[in-house]
Amino acid sequence: MNLLIINGPNLNLIGSREPEIYGVENPFKMVDRLKGKYPQINIDYFQSNVEGEIINALQNAVDKYDGIILNAGGYTHTSIAIADAVKAIKTSVVEVHMSNVLQRESFRHISYISPSADGVISGFGATSYELAIQYYILKNDE
């Protein structure tokens, strides 16, 4: 199985940015830990602060990945273009958030991505990504 984790703006700062919300594990260590825990799965990682690069990554993932784990960061609540890209591709997408967005500012309660995603996992820190991997494992076993 091939999975792609896509992180959006400012998520490259995880580990130093608001550790009370996002924890202290940087994204590269998180991905390395997940690769070690799930050696049977090829896990690739992409991060960008640029909306168009995230759209390109989503489109380029078609026919290369069995699933995408997408944390679009702030673009979740603002980007119709990323939402349209998720809707346009056939590759399965799980939307993840490290924080519980419903406990945060009201503008974070709206996701343009959720209606086109297989599901949403929110509020479990870095474990949110692992829960998405578990979803794909279970889906693959069906």
Rg: 14 Å
Reported by name, the CATH topology is Rossmann fold
Helix percentage range: 25-40%
- Give the name of the CATH architecture: 3-Layer(aba) Sandwich
The total of helices stands at 5
What general outline do the C-alpha atoms trace? globular
Please, could you describe this protein's structure?
There is one protein chain. By secondary structure, the protein is α/β, with parallel strands linked by helices. It has helices spanning 19-22, 27-37, 51-60, 80-88, 127-141; strands at 2-7, 42-47, 67-71, 92-97, 119-122. The chain has one domain: Dehydroquinase, class II (Rossmann fold, 3-Layer(aba) Sandwich). The chain has five helices and five strands, in the order βααβαβαββα. The chain has a five-stranded parallel beta sheet, sandwiched between helices. α3 (51-60) packs parallel to α4 (80-88). The chain is globular, with a radius of gyration of 14 Å.
List the defining traits of the structure above.
single chain; Rossmann fold; five-stranded parallel β-sheet; 5 helices; 5 strands; 19% strand
Blueprint (SSEs and pairs):
Elements: E1 2-7, H1 19-22, H2 27-37, E2 42-47, H3 51-60, E3 67-71, H4 80-88, E4 92-97, E5 119-122, H5 127-141
Parallel strand pairs: 1-2, 1-3, 3-4, 4-5
Helix pairs in contact: 3-4
How do you describe this structure in short?
35% of the residues lie in helices and 19% in strands.
